[in-house]
Predict the structure of Thiamine-monophosphate kinase.
Amino acid sequence: MACGEFDLIARYFDRVKSARRDVVMGIGDDCALLSVDEKRLIAVSTDTLVSGIHFLPTISPADLGYKSLAVNLSDLAAMGADPAWLSLALTLPEMDENWLAAFSDSLFEQLDYYGMQLVGGDTTRGPLSLTLTIQGLIPAGRAILRSGARIGDWIYVTGTLGDSAAGLAVLQDRLMVAAAPDRQYLLERHLRPQPRILQGQALRDLASSAIDLSDGLISDLRHILDRSDCGARIHLEDLPYSTALRRQVSPDQALRWALSGGEDYELCFTVPEINRGALDVALGHAGADFTCIGQIGPRSEGLQLLRDNQPVDLDWHGYDHFSRE
Amino acid sequence: MACGEFDLIARYFDRVKSARRDVVMGIGDDCALLSVDEKRLIAVSTDTLVSGIHFLPTISPADLGYKSLAVNLSDLAAMGADPAWLSLALTLPEMDENWLAAFSDSLFEQLDYYGMQLVGGDTTRGPLSLTLTIQGLIPAGRAILRSGARIGDWIYVTGTLGDSAAGLAVLQDRLMVAAAPDRQYLLERHLRPQPRILQGQALRDLASSAIDLSDGLISDLRHILDRSDCGARIHLEDLPYSTALRRQVSPDQALRWALSGGEDYELCFTVPEINRGALDVALGHAGADFTCIGQIGPRSEGLQLLRDNQPVDLDWHGYDHFSRE
């Protein structure tokens, strides 16, 4: 995910000279969608993780192996795709066998869990970074795009929000958590996010749009609104928090992290009224927690944050994603 | 392309826990081959280029945009694939609009030439590096693998060898070339290698194996021999050199660069006796230069370098690829 000024860079690459007929979706969603035959689409997504920017230099190789793939899987989840193939480009400052063994064990454990195969890649010397290109398969016509939200659709998120930002704060000594179980839970949520693959697949015929929450609810929901040409009302009192987060931080801090903390890798999706019953059944079968947090409205109303149905004006400093509002 | 000790790293990733039936070729060839329907295969290849390792930090953005894609296309050429889709991960130390404009113009010019589309990627801040994942299409059953060479097959290369290494030497002031046309030619061969896409496609039904020359003839041919379980005899007097290279360096230097200089991005391929006539016609139609340089032999004979049919024992220092012999 590009962010901040690096969004600008994407503009240099968002041009199509030769529009191929087999490219159903190019740049602009969680994945590109490629058509090879009439039955299935291939979903492709690329993520780069650079040491010191996307992960702390102190991260363990096992956590890095896990998280780099989980982040990439999350993009597939947001389209409703079945994970299939991975290409891994790994740049390392030096040959370190212990590091490589731990990293690759962790990576392959997750690949195996999802029935994926590593099909290629490249290993080079240089400052630590990784680029993963993941591919998945989706039955033709059933991919969930960012652009399908319509006025009146209900807005949902899976799981709980803000935990990952709290876990990062623990790692950086910005948040002190004495209770070991809460500390462990928040760290896990940051280091071992669960890609919502099953949920994404269950949403294929039910959700009108979806995105994964990498930058924070406000920033990511805005992508849905932009692509769908809609507005939204979010009921702040309905945002789902974990028990650990509620116990360890103030309600105000929890709200900030839920809205703009980033890296939760939950799904945010919209569902038409007519599909709400089926949604309860489908996600119930998947054993997945999900919460309705608002409703899609007309573009003219923008993105409104409400508490007890009253507009809330949040004035926060230091939250870039939000301040771009 | 991994090289040197970084070959070791690949071993950590060359394991298959869940072997997917749709993976026709995993790690171990120029591209992975993925099967989506019964008619076509997808060829996928990933290359990372790191500043100071894969390209000089002084390279122009236009040359970098060209070469990074050309190198990636060369892997498709070696399988006989039709170029289709590109994912680009670009890590930049800073936002530089002039750099980005020149880089992306150059990239899109070549994408357009090959009828390709950029379908996704990622832009991040960090030390300059690029990872490209390229995908192409091949009719099912017609991909050219490294593993198909058989005893008696003839060994060919496209174009001329050693020019790229000479061009790099010019850039690094290790080779002085006063004649402007020769200098320009050698620089172009290093900075603007021509991926042999048309040649690869023409070879689909004719060649028994192929690889692209990224590390140098000896090192790359050895991959064919390893995968095909064969040996080879190379006739050194038959190696093709450009007029510029012959004019500017000694025969001994030209030979070294041809065998182990690397980055020529020509194809090395093998052809059964029965296909030699058809080869002349097919590559003649493509307007491509190609030269027979030897013949595949039994594994027990290893890789033999001959001059006037006599074994040549080359004792060079400082040529890693060759010294690994």
